[in-house]
Each structure stands twice: as C-alpha cells, then as structure tokens.
Amino acid sequence: MRAVCRLVPMEGVRWAIPCARWAPSREEWLLCARCIQPEEKQRIGQFVFTRDAKAAMVYSYYNAKIISCSHSKPITAAPCSTSFLPLELAPEGSGSTEEFFRLMHRQFTEKEWHSIKSMAGDWAKLDMFYRHWALKESFIKAIGVGLGFSLQRVEFEVSPITMEVGKVYTETRMWLDEEPENWSFEEMLLDDKHHVAVALGDTNTNTEQTSKVNYHFQTCSARKCLYPFTWVCPEC
C-alpha cells in the first residue's frame, strides 16, 4: 500500500541544536522529563550512552512543546532529519566501514549502495551513507509511519554529489515502490559532519508549501532554546 501525505504550509525558523554541548543541570533535566510523554521518558531512560539520551530528550521535549503551542499559535514542525558522521565510527581500516555497511545492508537499495560505495575513501562513503539516511528519516517522519516501514521501499538519487556547507539544495529525486515521486526535499550541510534533510511533500499538491521554503538553520544551544517554552507546561 502506497503512503500518501499532504503537508500544510508553514512559516517560521529552523533550529539546529548541538545536543552534545548541552550539559543539563538536574533541574533542567527534570523540567524536560515532566513535559514529555511517560513512554518517551521511559524510552530515554533505557539509553546506554549519555549523548543518545540527551539527543532523544531534546527531540521529545521540542516535539511536545511545538504540539502544545500549536493549539493556540501557528507553529508547525518540519519533517526534518539530521545525520552526522560519528567520531566513534572513524575508520582506521576498511574493515570497520565494510562491517558497518554489512549490518545496515537492508536499509538501502542496491542503487543507493552503489552511490554510497562509489565514493573515494571510507570517510566519503560514510558521509554519503548519512546523507541518504537523513533523507530517508525525513520522509518517514513526514508520512508519519513507524519502524515497520521498509526503508528499501523508498529510494533516493542524490544531487549534487558534493554539497557546500550552509547552502540549501533541492535537486535530489525520490522513488517510492520503484515509481518516481514528485516529493521535494531540502538538503543542507550544517558543518562538515552534519547532514540535514527536510521533507516538503509532493510538489504537485504542496505548491504553496514549496514556495515558502529555503529557511536556513539557526544554531541555538539547548539551554537558550529551553526557556521560551517553559510556560507551556503547567507543572513547570
């Protein structure tokens, strides 16, 4: 069954929050925990690594705040995904990268793997891997499906191959169930390790949406962005 999604026009800003730099106090962490869903709080508590827990907390907290605000103010969350090249995956030899790709084989189509593996050097291959990953995540968030969706159903042909930091690109094309789609995506490099992809929807039905895009991401610390939303949570 093909997934169809119509996204509403939105205006606003896009924030890039460097979660790794966030060192929350006990009070800040409890504040965020009180404002998210209980199941999200339980899920975050199961993370092994602190960096993963912080990223999940920021994501869950801002989703909760944006949804709460949208009842009285026109605030909409963009279906956005950020992928980065983790330092722990820094390849010291081809074996580590090849093993990582073997474990992730089912997440991409043969055409996508050809695009990823055709890059010169392990770092370039990992860079292209995470670019594809960000695109797929943005699409999954846009259509509102969970982990049961097979990522091999959606295929991307990225363009251009090389991107410049801070510049927005919209040339990448998508196929769904081997049929071309008119979905529009914005891609951007926040820096040399972070890919961002924003799914804007079908250009045939979301012409107003796609005509108002090209917002650049503004880097904002988690702590600085935390306080404008604290009033939303009655327990805070």
Report what the structure shows.
With 236 residues, the protein is α+β, with helices and mostly antiparallel strands. 36% of the residues lie in helices and 17% in strands. The chain has 8 helices and 8 strands, in the order E-H-H-H-E-H-H-H-E-E-E-E-E-H-E-H. A hairpin with a 2-residue loop joins strand 4 (173-176) and strand 5 (179-181). Helix 2 runs antiparallel to helix 3 and helix 5 runs antiparallel to helix 6. The protein is globular, with a radius of gyration of 18 Å.
What is this structure's SSE topology?
Layout: E1 14-16, H1 26-34, H2 38-45, H3 50-69, E2 80-84, H4 94-103, H5 110-117, H6 122-143, E3 154-157, E4 173-176, E5 179-181, E6 183-191, E7 194-202, H7 207-210, E8 217-219, H8 222-226
Parallel strand pairs: 1-8
Antiparallel strand pairs: 2-7, 3-4, 4-5, 6-7
Helix/strand structural class: alpha+beta
Overall helicity: 25-40%
Q: What is the mean pLDDT?
A: 76
- The CATH superfamily of the largest domain is known as 4'-phosphopantetheinyl transferase domain
| Low-confidence spans | 1-10, 68-78, 85-94, 230-236
CATH architecture of the largest domain: Alpha-Beta Complex
Distance between the termini: 43 Å
Strand content: 15-25%
Characterize the overall form: globular
Cα-based radius of gyration, to the nearest Å = 18 Å
Number of domains: 2
Strand order of the largest sheet: 2-7-6
Number of strands: 8
Could you say what the CATH topology of the largest domain is called?
Ribosomal Protein L22, Chain A
Question: Quick one: biggest sheet?
Answer: 3 strands, antiparallel
Order of helix and strand elements from N to C terminus: EHHHEHHHEEEEEHEH
